[in-house]
């Protein structure tokens, strides 16, 4: 928060800041913000259209620095909430004034729609990262469409298509495996129907399971453009009452060179080859299209999170290479991303050995030494081998019995000019200067405070510090 607290906030020309009476507000093109109360221990200064926050508590200053920045942003640009739905089979629909999210869970999520809702569609060129065109529900009046889901989407789609035609864009690809929504489900349904008919015909005609020579050649030609690579093989053991049952799992990466599509699949079987074939068949059913770019890198930042694992991929300039794990590097090979920068000075590929010619251990190595002070190779160190004896002198703390001057003033037995000896008491006595004192006395004690000494001398008295003798 300390960096945010020291941040200078620039005020745009169209924004007016009102800072009076411990309240700050902003007024701009989009209206006036709500009043923000400033705490008493926070100082806000406005010099030459630049705001700065200062406080002993850096967390408080940083929080209010962000709040003031949001005030200015709200009156200039406004605030928006963006929900991006990614994934094949996920669906968002409008029903009875609420957004219904179908995200593959056991239940549907409903979100109430604000009164001023804007639904926006954008066409983005992934190779460049620019927005070609966009359509929004704010482009047409509310009277021209109903709040029903079909009319709502149809009108927006027609408007989006008209704008694309004006931009001379005849064809676009949705980011759902290159097909419109539900296209994958319809294709799988058709393929299952065709496969079912073929099985019935096979059974009726009693066709031999062994394919003919021509059919085998056709299959080879069909599979020639399919490339695959095994990423991982694992042996799985299931312990039962009768013993242990072994099986194998296989993670396969697949590429279709004709369709420019890739996929991965995970399957199991009693043998490795059975698991591999099963994963290969599954992967061909869920291929995802990719678009090779001229710079041979990914078009945008990609963040994927699964349980406790988070994966972040970031595009880099040409020649900077790809720094990723083994499985990802093989995936990039399939995606025709070939730029990979060699890390100079480290590793086997550097030409200087695994440790850059500096050895593997010791103070001169690349990692440097990590032996803690006092470590002697595992044996008992010297500071533990010899016992500790003696010790330094520690002065004993003296505990005093306190007597105030006002107590001596109130005592009628003590008169002016008398000598009061308190040095012979069992415990050492210290005189404190609390209360009024007017008697001219000579006081003997173990210690006197400074106010007590001043009051005794002011009335013409005397004090003597007498240390108690040790027996």
UniProtKB/TrEMBL annotation:
GO annotation, cellular component aspect:
large ribosomal subunit
Acetylation: present as a keyword of the record?
A: no
Q: For bias kind Gly residues, which ranges apply?
A: 346-362
Q: Which residues form the signal peptide?
A: none
Q: Which InterPro entries match?
A: Ribosomal_L18, Ribosomal_Su5_D2-typ_SF, Ribosomal_uL15, Ribosomal_uL15/eL18, Ribosomal_uL15/eL18_sf, Ribosomal_uL15_bac-type, Ribosomal_uL18_bac/plant/anim, Ribosomal_uL6-like_a/b-dom_sf
Residue ranges constituting the S5 DRBM domain according to the UniProt record: 226-290
Its name, as the record gives it, is 1747_t:CDS:1
What is the native source organism of this protein?
A: Paraglomus occultum
